[in-house]
Design brief:
The structure is a single chain. 41% of the residues lie in helices and 14% in strands. By secondary structure, the protein is α/β, with parallel strands linked by helices. The structure holds iron/sulfur cluster. Iron/sulfur cluster binds next to loops.
């Protein structure tokens, strides 16, 4: 298995060279900002500590179209957007006067519509209600958030591909200081549409694939074409030259090394640049259900995550992002600190999995004193 898919991953030497280049770049950026070796040392150490807690060690990079990525939620390296992202993180450790982002990532559900009925859907209460936002209002939300500085926006739903033409218009007209990603089940994402996304300025697509057994995936998504659509979308994303992330909600029955290794190998073989592991939360359609992973399952996943991301024998596997891993070490980065969630009715929440319904996004954006409205802190991390 390893040999058949290793060619799509950057070589070990390229990974080492990239790591050194990124470190030098961050060091120089810190010096430009602070002009003090002592401050540079302090901030650099904190940034590297954070990096290790996110990647579980040294981590891996993705290379596509001659460009480099450290993670889904970081802009490409090197770029102005990458620098601004890093400056924003530096400012948390030691304030400076350079421009920063108010938010590093916003997940924006742009539609209530969806053809799936997934068991874990966190938008379950809003599915297929009347649309809240007309396309002009979607644009207004994006442009107001961009005016505050926003590194990354994930367009979700519902199924964002249901609103394909309006989504294209939204992305095409937006300022490119923000990376646009589309979070999809794979619905309707064929090559021509993937190419249109790329032309409009999308950076990448996250395709959900919760099982490598087609029948099990279809049952979980309650749609008999779900697996076929996800695999077609992955292929189209790749062929169009977009970054591809394969995302999985790891159910209790799948929280073991054998399944997750097989899933990571399958995702890599599909051309994934990143793999994302999500832990199930008792929210949305899972509300009131006993879905939370056990301590032993989390421990198994964390150990495997570190191995797959760092051990030489797994170099062929795409880099894995596991939010639970860094949240348990760094605390929650969402809940208004670095990111938040806007649901398809416009309500702002701590994150997609912690529904706080704090206020409506338009009330907040139209309010000149935004400090009056607070996003709830994470109740877990
Ligand atoms: S999880 Fe996503 S794809 Fe599944 S029903 Fe909910 S909105 Fe649709």
């Amino acid at each position: 298995m390893a040999n058949s898919i290793s060619s799509s991953r950057p070589s070990h030497l390229v990974q080492i060279a990239l790591r050194i280049w990124v470190k030098i770049h961050i060091g120089l950026l810190a010096f430009k900002v602070y002009r003090s070796i002592k401050k540079v040392k302090l901030v650099f150490t904190e940034i590297m500590k954070m990096d290790r807690k996110v990647s579980g060690g040294k981590g891996k990079y993705a290379v596509k179209n001659g460009k480099y990525w450290i993670g889904i939620y970081l802009p490409e390296f090197p770029s102005k957007n990458f620098d601004r992202y890093v400056l924003t993180e530096m400012n948390k450790f030691m304030p400076h006067t350079f421009p920063i982002n108010s938010y590093q990532q916003v997940n924006f559900a742009i539609t209530t519509k969806c053809p799936m009925r997934c068991e874990h859907c966190f938008e379950w209460d809003n599915l297929n209600l009347h649309e809240t936002f007309a396309v002009d209002q979607l644009k207004q939300v994006i442009s107001k958030l961009q005016a505050k500085g926003m590194a990354h926006v994930s367009l979700s739903g519902g199924e964002p591909m249901v609103r394909f033409n309006e989504m294209l218009e939204l992305i095409r007209e937006a300022d490119k200081s923000t990376d646009f990603w589309v979070l999809t089940s794979g619905f309707n994402l064929d090559l021509p549409r993937a190419q249109k996304l790329k032309q409009a300025g999308v950076t990448g697509v996250v395709v959900s694939l919760d099982d490598i057994n087609p029948e099990k995936h279809n049952t979980f998504r309650r749609h008999n074409q779900a697996y076929q659509m996800a695999t077609m979308a992955a292929q189209a994303t790749n062929q169009a030259g977009l970054l591809l992330a394969i995302s999985i909600c790891v159910l209790r029955e799948n929280a073991n090394a054998s399944f997750l290794t097989a899933h990571a190998e399958a995702a890599t073989a599909m051309g994934a640049d990143f793999i994302q592991w999500l832990e199930p939360k008792a929210e949305g359609n899972f509300r009131g259900k006993d879905v939370t992973l056990t301590f032993e399952q989390i421990s198994t996943m964390e150990k495997l995550f570190v191995r797959l991301n760092n051990d030489a024998e797994y170099r062929y596997i795409a880099p894995i992002m596991y939010h639970g891993y860094y949240q348990r070490r760094l605390g929650c980065l969402s809940a208004g600190k670095s990111s938040f969630y806007i649901d398809s009715r416009g309500m702002v929440h701590s994150c997609p999995f912690c529904h706080s319904s704090d206020f409506h996004i338009m009330d907040w954006l139209n309010n000149t004193n935004r400090n009056e409205k607070k996003i709830s802190a994470c109740p877990t991390y």
